[in-house]
Specification:
By secondary structure, the protein is α/β, with parallel strands linked by helices. Helices cover 30% and strands 18% of the residues. The protein contains four helices and five strands; from the N terminus they run E-H-E-E-H-E-H-E-H.
Length: 137
Amino acid sequence: MFRPTRRAAFFDLTHPQCPVDEDPALRYALADHRAEGDLVVLVVDAHRRLPQRLPPEGTLLRLPPSAARDMDKCTVVVETMTRLCIDPASCFGYGDLCTGTGLLSVVGNPRVIPCNADGARLAQERGWPVLVPSSAA
């Protein structure tokens, strides 16, 4: 059974443009989800170093070394939502479209981290909001 009042925010940090603590848009999103009491889940690649500063109340979802494709990431995130009994419709996902759409396509509230013009175009086609860096706002 899903817990409709519980929300989670999945942050895809497998191939970040810059560390999460150096990205103002991501810092703001993290702070907003913390303030709402949402579960914060950081999705990281097994082959990359962990972020230097992790949210203290966050959950780390480290992908196994065998999870090399976007679909593998998608599967791990769906399994996590199922284990936590959280409705995907109440989940947020933050990621860029340069590394795939898996995480963003399995949550009810995708948010795109801009990586290039093609990613912004695809986000617009799908109706997904794009995080605007504070320097561009």
